[in-house]
Design a protein that fits this description.
about 220 residues, alpha+beta, four-stranded antiparallel beta sheet, 8 strands, about 20% strand, disordered C terminus
Amino acid sequence: THDYDYINYVLGTKPVRVAAVTSKRIFTGTKPAGLTCSRCDEQTTCPESPYQLRLAEERRYGDYCVFAIDTGNEDSGSAIVLYESGMHLSYSQNFFVRKKAAARGARFMGYKGTVEFDWYTDELKVTMHHTPKVEMHRFASKQGHFGGDKELAINFIALMKGTGVSRAPLDAGIASALLCVKSIESAQSGMFRDVVWPDEVEPTREGASQGGANA
């Protein structure tokens, strides 16, 4: 949802249709459900164990076994999102690329130029398409969520005092969450899914609202 959220914010337009696929070929296995590293007989040899991650100076994200039969998340996923303006987004995520190969950000391409940024390096690059000009901007924020937590808190306080306007309205959260739900439905069904907003659903004869097969 976070990636969809900031991408939607930058584009400033609604997503209307999505097609997605996922794959799970790495974090699979036959270890028992609910197994934790502290109870595993391979805790010194498994590449995901605290012991091995310490040697690799790699961050650890949890204690549950990623090679157990109850790991439900995909290893990677990709989506193509169509927006109401006619533009489309190509989005991919994976959960096994690490260290210097890891990146998180976006590239926005237009006729006049390309803007790209990486949250991990705190860099933003602007390439002009019709001149030899390239701009690099570097930021020094190492706060929670790359500084976003602080700014949202300040904005919320201003909103409650009546001195500001919300920079992150509820509609934005609903939009990114709805797009995630439709992406999951698309990956499970192998079909495009329309992103139907609550205020766009046609009422039934009984007065209730329903969105149909692709809602």
